[in-house]
Amino acid sequence: MRLPVPRGPISERLFGELSRPPHDFAFPGSLLATPAAPVVADEDTQVALFACYELHYQGFDAVDDRWEWNRSVLAVRERLEDRFERALAGVVPRPPAASPRATPRLLVETVAADDGPSLAAYLHREADLERFREFVAHRSIYHLKEADPHTWAIPRLRGPAKAALAEIQADEYGGGRAGRMHSELFRATMRGLGLDDTYGAYADLVPAVTLAAGNTMSMFGLHRRHRGKLLGQLAAFEMTSSLPNLRYGQALRRLGGGAEALRYYEEHVRADAVHEQIAVHDMCGRFAADHPELAGDVLYGAACALTLDRLFTEHVVGRWRAGAGSLREAVAAAAPR
């Protein structure tokens, strides 16, 4: 994966530093001043934060791996995270205090009360093949590393909550079979649609709101203090997965998708119906019982997932209804291999 193209002064300066051998550097305070755009939609902030996090995943070609724990990069990331965390608090209302025993029920009620626009319904009924390919390009930013942000939580849990998360993750990673890993199934979907299935291939094309959803997972996953939020985010993800994936699969079948391209969606219709129950009761419910002071974090993490998905859907469907593309540039067909 290449370093992304800078989208403003922060990413331009940061990526310039990362292109050199590891060294200490400092950003002037004015460079990290309040952005003009809301942080969730600020291209410069989100691509810079995305790059900081990607150093902990697959890294970048021609970027020294020692940058991962460089103190100057961590200092920049801390300031960007503080900006992002405050912005999330501004757009995601903190749920009322909850008892640990009520956490599973409140998770279900939180998801049931979400009345945001349905991207799955649009794709199911209205989208043409080009719109579906755009959707898959957006989703590739997360799905090609599917489950990885949540795996950070495993060593930070204990007891039943840990076992429940490990059970979910084992399925996400294919039960030990590389070809069944959900990230590999998604690569097959991309190939079936003539898209480039290289990790991070569309990082330069997706807008800030797409990056923000993945950055939230990474921020929650990389900080122990956010572990309750990460579990709530995962639970909401699993609870809102089965029916949309059924519709995505039906849309792709309507558009002529083949069996290999459909496997990803068919797998999630089955798997996530099971994961939902594990995530709500065995993972989040038991975590809240063990950490009653963090029960509110679980609900807040779920609210973050739902809000960011709504903002993403509003952007994508809004652009499509206006007759425009939802990416920063049009998606080209992948070169033959």
Defining key terms:
14 helices; 2 domains; globular; 337 residues; mainly alpha; Heme Oxygenase, Chain A; single chain; 61% helix
Structural class: mainly alpha
Q: CATH superfamily of the largest domain, called what? A: Heme oxygenase-like
Give the second-level CATH assignment, the architecture of the largest domain.
Answer: Up-down Bundle
CATH class of the largest domain, named Mainly Alpha
Number of domains: 2
DSSP helix count? 14
Shape: globular
The number of distinct β-strands equals 0
Radius of gyration: 19 Å
Question: Mean pLDDT, rounded to whole units?
Answer: 94
Task: Describe this protein's structure.
By secondary structure, the protein is mainly alpha-helical. The chain has 2 domains: 9-91, no CATH class; 100-321, Heme oxygenase-like (Heme Oxygenase, Chain A, Up-down Bundle), CATH 1.20.910.10. Helix content is 61%, strand content 0%. It contains 14 helices and no strands. The chain has helices at residues 9-18, 43-54, 71-91, 103-113, 119-125, 129-143, 148-151, 159-172, 182-192, 208-222, 227-239, 242-254, 259-290, 295-321. Helix 1 (9-18) packs parallel to helix 2, helix 11 packs across helix 13 (259-290) and helix 12 (242-254) runs antiparallel to helix 13. The longest helix has 32 residues, at 259-290. The radius of gyration is 19 Å and the shape is globular. The model has no long low-confidence stretch (mean pLDDT 94).
